[in-house]
Amino acid sequence: MNKVRIAGIIPESIVDGPGIRMTIFTQGCIHHCKGCHNPETHPLNGGRFVNIYDILDDIKSNPLLDGVTFSGGEPFLQSKELSLLGKEIKALGLDIITYTGYTFEEIVTGIDKHKYWKELLNITDILIDGKYKEDSRSLLLKFRGSKNQRIIDVKKSLKTNMLKIVEF
User: Fold this and answer.
1) Does 92 map to a domain?
2) Which residues constitute the signal peptide according to the record (predicted)?
3) C-alpha dihedral over 132, 144, 128, 5, to 10 degrees?
4) Closest CA to 129 of 21, 48, 6, 31
5) Looking at the domain assignment, is residue 142 inside a domain?
6) What is the helix (H) or strand (E) element at residue 155, kind and residue range?
7) What average pLDDT score do residues 52-56 get?
């Protein structure tokens, strides 16, 4: 299927990563973090389906974009659709940031069990990982909500064969 279930799209954002970004809020999350910023994205059957090629047309129509951010909800629940969209985004020369409640380690160890996680991870340039923890909240953090969350350079981290996670 070439459709992704989304909660919404922000055509231009400066708070979901560096530069001007389109932010796609996926629908559906199993983490249910206490104090979540986007609780309306939790229901798996909520939101609406959008053709990924319609999203791609919107991306192409904005020459100001530096990249695209996949947020949520939980993007890894729709890894097949987002990896397909992500490949097209990368072909345009844009970078991709993916927010996830999973840790980098959980994603890497789950690749064998979840068919498209590897593809989504491989098209992601920056991964912001970890569940939001209300008791670790900080308004001073860049691009994340709680101190446990990391901003990870995926390409550099994968090159270490998981011996070292390279953070920004």
Assistant:
1) yes
2) none
3) 70
4) 31
5) yes
6) helix 154-159
7) 97
For 143, list phi and psi in degrees, rounded to 5. Answer: 65, 15
Tokens of 70: 């996949």
Q: What is the CATH number of the domain that holds 144?
A: 3.20.20.70
Alpha carbons 120 and 164: distance in angstroms, whole number: 20
For residue 1, CA distances in Å to 51, 70, 135 come to: 9, 18, 39
Q: What is the pLDDT of residues 123-133, one digit of tens each?
A: 999 999 999 99
Number of domains comprising the chain: 1
Nearest Cα to Cα of residue 6 among 56, 53, 62, 46:
46
The answer as to whether 165 is a domain residue is no
Q: Which residue segment(s) compose the domain that 137 sits in?
A: 3-159
CA distances from 46 to 138, 152, 155, 160 (A): 29, 29, 33, 38
Using the predicted structure, report yes or no on whether residue 162 has a pLDDT greater than 70: no
> Residue 135 corresponds to which tokens in the numbers above?
């008791």
Other Cβ atoms within 10 Å of 26 Cβ, number: 26
User: What Cα–Cα distance (Å) separates residue 6 from each residue in 18, 38, 68?
Assistant: 22, 12, 14
